Every structure is written in structure tokens, then in C-alpha cells.
Amino acid sequence: MKLVTRAEWGARPPKQSWTYVASTQGVKVHYEGDPVPADLVSHHEWCAGRVRDIQAAHMADTSQGWIDIAYNCVVCPHAYVFEGRGLHHETGANGNQPLNVAHYAVCGMVGNSGLTQPTNDMLNGIRDAIEWLQQQGGAGPEIKGHRDGYPTDCPGDPLYAWVQRGAPRPGGGSRGGSAGGSAAPPWPGEYLRLQDPLLNDANVRDWQQRMADRGWPITVDGWYGSESRSICEQFQQDSTAHGWPLTVDGIVGEQTWNATWQRPVS
Ligand SMILES: [Zn+2]
Ligand SMILES: [Zn+2]
User: Which of 31, 131, 38 is nearest to 75 (CA)?
Assistant: First the structure.
């Protein structure tokens, strides 16, 4: 599973503590409802910003009184699972409190115009999120749509048809659960750091691109400036907090380079 943690996508903290849930009957699938740009499928670099926008919109919605992004996870067209409220926290998305206690909520990044059809990668990502919530969050076997039990179009007809078929993985295969990240390119032997910055350094650019793919708000320009150093430090702290200890020094040495590609994602 390609999990993008809250720190990686730049989540704001919740307004107040989430409500703990030990277990649920299962998961309800949602969509954004609003227009989603059709060319999002070829622009993963937009996805983390979209999740930040969803969180900001939810937290600004005074009619709902949401303390945070309402979903437990948001899944983009490229199979990345963005951590929302995450495991063991009550969702705010299912319509009312009894419905929120009964099921977790996973949102696919499709809308009611533009991008309306989920990609196979998105379906695999939603399936990854559901299995993560089942295996580590106490979710039961039910997979339903937001419209089950609540009057709404959500999650849209294409996603709902997939839910009604039992939410199968495209092609019927399994992705093998919590597989790790990508194979790392060889360590270039060059320490990437804020020192004698080289414009358009190819190794810096490769590292920045990978960090952007992981959801970090980083500029991919081949220049290791203060932004890259800050994000490197945040990645090192976040990795350490997720069981992949790294020295927090803002320098991309061999261990940080490898973790950028290989760090297990859940
Ligand atoms: Zn919904
Ligand atoms: Zn994406």
C-alpha cells in the first residue's frame, strides 16, 4: 500500500481530539462530488494539494462543524492512500452520528464531472485502504456506499457499481498487502545538502521528484535550498516516527536516499 501520512501531505492538526472507535461494521466508499479535473490522471503532483484543499474546506464548513477532514482515507487516481483521520477514529462523512460510528469512510478522488471514472489504480488503492482499516483498524467485512442508508448521490454511479460488485481488485489479483515502496536507484555517492548548491543537479532533482510523488509539497527544480532541507528534516522525523529511524540532519545521505524509495508505507 502506498500510504501518504498526514505529515507527508502537510495536514493541519484537528481542531479537537478525534473520537476513538475500537471497531466498525465495515467501510463506506465516497467520492468528492464536486468537479475533478479530467487531467488529474496525469498529474499526481496535484494530489497532495487537493487533499489539503479538502481538509481546509471541511474544517471551514460551519454547518457540519467538522474538526478535521471528514474521511479516514482519500485515494487518488495513482493508488496513493492519503491518511485522513486514519485508524480507530470516527469519521464525520457518513451523514449522521450513528452512521459515522457504524462504518469508516474512504473517499475516491473522482467527481460528478471531469474525472468521473475511477482508474484501476484508484480501485486498487481503495481496496488497499479498506484492507488497512480491516487489518489494523478493526473494520468489519461490510463494504458499502455513502448512499446506502443516507439520501445522497455519493459515491457516484461508477464507484457505486464497483461497490455493489463487492469492490473487486481490477484483474482479480492481489497486491500482496503491505508491500514496500519502489526499488531505490543506486545511491549516487553525493550528499545532498544545503551547501554549495548546484543548480539543476540531476540527483537532487530525482530525490525531489520522488518526494513529490510521496506527497510532500516540494519544488522539483534540482536546487537543494532551504525548502528541500526543511522537507528532508520533516521526512527524517516522520520516518523515525514510523519505525524507519533516520538521523534528522537535513542531509540526504545514503540511508535517507534509500528510505525515500524503500520505506515501507504502512
Ligand atoms: Zn460521501
Ligand atoms: Zn495521485
Answer: 31
